[in-house]
Amino acid sequence: MIDYFSDIPSLHRSLILVGGITLFWWLENAFPLFKFQYKKWQHAGINFFFTLTTIIINFVLAFMLLATSEWTKKNQFGILNWLPEMNSVSTCILGLLLLDFIGAYLVHLIEHKTPFFWRFHLIHHSDTWIDTTSANRHHPGESMLRFAFTCLGVLLVGCPMWLAFLYQTLSLVSTQFSHANIKLPKKIDHYLSYLIVTPDMHKIHHHYKLPYTDSNYGNIFSIWDRLLGTYMTLPVEKIIYGIDTYPEEREHNRLSSLLKIPFQKYRKASAAEKK
Fold first, then answer.
1. 162 and which of 6, 70, 182, 255 could share a cystine (Cβ 3.0–4.6 Å)?
2. What is the pLDDT of residues 126-140, one digit of tens each?
3. What is the pLDDT of residues 20-37, one digit of tens each?
4. CA angle at residue 168 from 163 to 173, to 5 degrees?
5. CA 113, CA 93: separation in Å to the nearest integer?
6. Can you state the percent helix, strand and coil of the chain, rounding each to 5?
7. Which residues are paired to 196 by β-bridges?
8. Residues in the chain with pLDDT < 70?
9. Is residue 138 a contact partner of residue 146, using CB atoms and an 8 Å limit?
């Protein structure tokens, strides 16, 4: 595994991306959680555009990730380098947990708590038909911020490149899974949610009103939400997707409108909207 992820071919990473979307797309059709009345390909087209911009940004800036990992190795910097030597399994588990905290949970929390970053992140929340294509519906500005936090995670954790590539791969599949419009048996979803972020758990984060919008920030592991008090529950039948400050359909179904949102006047939910 270490050898494979140390130099995983770009083709394989692309196949994982396409394979994940294909698998969960099929499962959505076979076992849908919600029966959306929408043109699925049209909806997917917008989200695929943002997926493509995310891929481009990650590809162009990949040298920074590689340079950061090499620097930590050369200078023995980061948590994994400061701890007593561990076997590869322990290194993998601890590294993934820490990378998931810094590169996913922490940046996600910051995006919700900082108005400037929220302007970019709300494009993700404006989607009113959450399915597996929604996973990478991120404004290019947000994609750059998330990449920066991934680099920060690699720096602070001091992880080798194979671990960084493994984390990115698991993160991709996990977010496709948690956004997928699939219905798992409630008990299975419930028990899985003690370890990983499940569809029912993450869908609560996409409820259109506070305080649910500000909950369940995790990506791969659910431990951080449970430990840090941001875990919430809500019956799935009560979930309404979208964001209360952008209720008009034309704003979340037109690419030109979505790209402009971060640069428009900031809209803040009223006290009545938060209830």
1. 6
2. 999 999 999 999 999
3. 889 999 999 899 988 888
4. 125
5. 29
6. 70, 0, 30
7. 221
8. 266-275
9. yes
User: Distance between CA 240 and CA 206 in Å, rounded?
Assistant: 8
Per the document, the length of the chain is 275
Token digits of residue 31: 């076992």
Residue indicated by tokens 């305080």: 211
One-letter amino acid for residue 69 of the chain? S
**C-alpha 74: how far from its chain's center?**
30
Helix (H/G/I), strand (E/B), else coil: 221: strand
pTM as predicted? 0.91
195, 210 Cβ separation under 8 angstroms: no
* Contact between residue 156 and residue 92 where contact means Cβ atoms under 8 Å apart: no
Average of per-residue pLDDT values in the chain = 90
Cα 167 to Cα 102, 214, 216, 243: the distances in Å are 12, 24, 19, 29
174: left (phi over 0), alpha (psi -120 to 50) or beta: alpha
Give the pLDDT score at 16.
Answer: 87
pLDDT of residue 6: 74
| CA separation for the pair 208, 212 (Å, rounded) | 8
In angstroms, what is the C-alpha Rg of the chain?
Answer: 18
Residue located via tokens 């948690």: 178
Q: Which among 130, 145, 140 is positioned nearest to 175, based on CA atoms?
A: 130
**How far is it, in rounded angstroms, from Cα 92 to Cα 122?**
32
Give CA–CA dist 127/155, Å, rounded: 33
Whole-angstrom distance, CA of residue 124 vs CA of residue 50: 10
Token code pair at residue 24: 């969960």
| Alpha-carbon distances of 17 from 52, 155, 182, rounded to whole Å | 11, 25, 18
> Nearest CA to 64 among 151, 172, 143, 146?
151
Q: What is the pLDDT of residue 272?
A: 38
